[in-house]
């Protein structure tokens, strides 16, 4: 498990799909991971069944960028090309690397826009539950992506919400407020209901002009956009505010506390994203704080964690357990490709901080030496969060899942920039040390799990509680975890509803349009058109 100066092999999770990946040695593989080149020559025309190598088509842009890439400090590689070449690159790249490449129709790109064509390059097959197998296919502006992932800064109002329904009568409630953001400074709190925005009735307005105004307010297109809003508070009063979209810092480690209970000292850690490289130090400090407090149990709140860097998920897994619990030959996750790559790979449990090139720094991570962890989950617990749960179960660490079924994404990708747009398409699946990775319909909390279904995890199904602050011992998910520690009991299971509850952030929309789900695509940065008219 020692990583010294080797470059760490990363996978990444798509939940939020705002992740970077580094290729190289370490983690059980000494070779690089590259698509097989079929040796064909580039062409500007589509020919059924004939694919030029993606490398020969890359960076040939209809509108080339000029200047220096702020991430690499090198000139942009763009050359003058065309939309046709951009689409043909997408076609070849997908044929080489897409996990289910043999399920793709070879669609003629003529007549499609670039992003519209990219939307066609995914499977339409479904899982056993009837859900689409690929709900994680999207594109986004490269510059905006780099701002979020490299600096930990995003733009918007700073609150996240869930939809009760996108149809009139609509229901939208705030679930989380980023500290120091415009929403925080305006006094917006968890549980508040948005009832009016941009002068439009969010609950009932179904006119085209109303829907456009609501979407414009929810998803500010630029920093400095000022939007009037009215919220209904938990006490029933109305709060009128005017929020201005701005750049604000994302706090991945949102809360760390030690709870004194009859069972001893319990650590509570609210961790909201694996996406931010700069969150390594805060996460290390949080675990050190819990270690110094000599906690005997850990409640890890991942209910709004849509995923991110798989390497950071591996670091957290190591910090929860430690060298005495992780088997000497164990890996965190096996990365399984589509058969066209040179080899599959393995990511180890990472025991130290990484530098910006994903090399080990030699700075050791603190460990809690726990053999059990309680994880709070919702349908927004996704990707690298699910990998953490699955990886710990793969080395026989007891994971108790409290909340709801996770999003169901045992897959990952290498986000790839071409001509100023970063594309994310499913390129691998992950398996734990025990060989399990089939949870496309989510990891399900069950008080009495069926041992024949490995996607069922011991725990309790509990609805998210918007009437209490996160970390409050009276909040339903945390209260259920503390009670379960005491007597292994679960509260009465809530009735299931058909209401859509998907986490969204008041920031820029992703430049994509998913026909599979009108509400969201990557769990955090949703499609722009999210509201529906009742007549549709």
UniProtKB/TrEMBL annotation:
In the UniProt record, the signal sequence range is 1-24
The UniProt record lists the PDZ domain at 142-202
Cited PROSITE patterns: PDZ, PROKAR_LIPOPROTEIN
Q: Pfam families this protein is in? A: Peptidase_S41
> Keywords on this record?
Signal
Which PANTHER family does the UniProt record give? Answer: CARBOXY-TERMINAL PROCESSING PROTEASE CTPA, TAIL-SPECIFIC PROTEASE
Protein name (Swiss-Prot/TrEMBL): S41 family peptidase
Organism listed in the record: Bowmanella denitrificans
């Amino acid at each position: 498990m020692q990583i010294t100066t080797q470059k760490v092999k990363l996978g990444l999770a798509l939940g939020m799909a705002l992740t970077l990946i580094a290729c190289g040695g370490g983690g059980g593989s000494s070779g690089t991971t590259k698509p097989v080149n079929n040796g064909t020559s580039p062409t500007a025309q589509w020919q059924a069944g004939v694919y030029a190598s993606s490398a020969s088509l890359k960076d040939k842009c209809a509108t080339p960028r000029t200047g220096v890439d702020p991430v690499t400090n090198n000139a942009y590689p763009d050359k003058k090309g065309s939309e046709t070449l951009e689409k043909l690159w997408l076609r070849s790249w997908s044929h080489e690397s897409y996990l289910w490449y043999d399920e793709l129709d070879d669609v003629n790109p003529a007549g499609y826009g670039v992003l519209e064509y990219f939307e066609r390059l995914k499977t339409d097959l479904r899982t056993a539950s009837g859900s689409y197998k690929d709900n994680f296919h999207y594109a986004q502006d490269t510059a905006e992506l780099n701002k979020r992932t490299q600096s930990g800064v995003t733009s918007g109002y700073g609150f996240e919400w869930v939809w009760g329904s996108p149809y009139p009568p609509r229901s939208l409630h705030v679930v989380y407020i980023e500290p120091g953001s415009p929403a925080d400074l305006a006094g917006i709190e968890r549980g508040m209901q948005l009832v009016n925005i941009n002068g439009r009735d969010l609950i009932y307005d179904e006119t085209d002009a109303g829907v456009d105004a609501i979407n414009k307010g929810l998803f500010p297109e630029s920093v400095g956009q000022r939007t009037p809003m009215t919220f209904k508070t938990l006490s029933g009063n109305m709060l009128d505010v005017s929020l201005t979209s701005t750049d604000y810092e994302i706090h991945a480690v949102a809360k760390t506390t030690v709870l004194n209970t009859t069972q001893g000292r319990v650590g509570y850690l609210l961790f909201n994203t694996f996406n931010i490289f700069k969150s390594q130090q805060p996460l290390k400090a949080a675990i050190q704080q819990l270690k110094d407090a000599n906690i005997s149990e850990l409640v890890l709140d991942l209910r709004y964690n849509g995923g991110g860097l798989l390497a950071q998920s591996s670091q957290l897994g190591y910090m929860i357990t430690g060298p005495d619990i992780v088997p000497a030959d164990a890996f965190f996750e096996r990365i399984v490709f589509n058969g066209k790559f040179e080899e599959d790979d393995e990511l180890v449990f990472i025991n130290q901080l990484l530098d910006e090139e994903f090399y080990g720094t030699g700075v050791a991570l603190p460990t809690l030496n726990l053999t059990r962890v309680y994880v709070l989950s919702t349908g927004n617990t996704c990707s690298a969060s699910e990998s953490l749960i699955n990886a710990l179960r793969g080395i026989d660490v007891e994971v108790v899942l409290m909340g709801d079924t996770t999003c169901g994404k045992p897959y990952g990708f290498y986000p790839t920039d071409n001509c100023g747009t970063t594309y994310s398409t499913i390129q691998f699946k992950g398996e734990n040390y025990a060989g399990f990775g089939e949870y496309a319909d989510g990891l399900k909390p069950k008080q009495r799990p069926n041992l024949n279904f490995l996607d069922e995890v011991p725990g309790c199904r509990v609805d998210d509680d918007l009437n209490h602050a996160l970390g409050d011992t009276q909040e339903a998910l945390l209260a259920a975890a503390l009670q379960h520690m005491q007597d292994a009991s679960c509260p009465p299971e809530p009735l299931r509803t058909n209401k859509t509850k998907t986490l969204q952030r008041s920031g820029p929309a992703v430049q994509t349009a998913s026909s599979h789900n009108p509400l969201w695509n990557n769990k955090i940065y949703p499609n722009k058109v999210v509201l529906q008219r009742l007549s549709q």
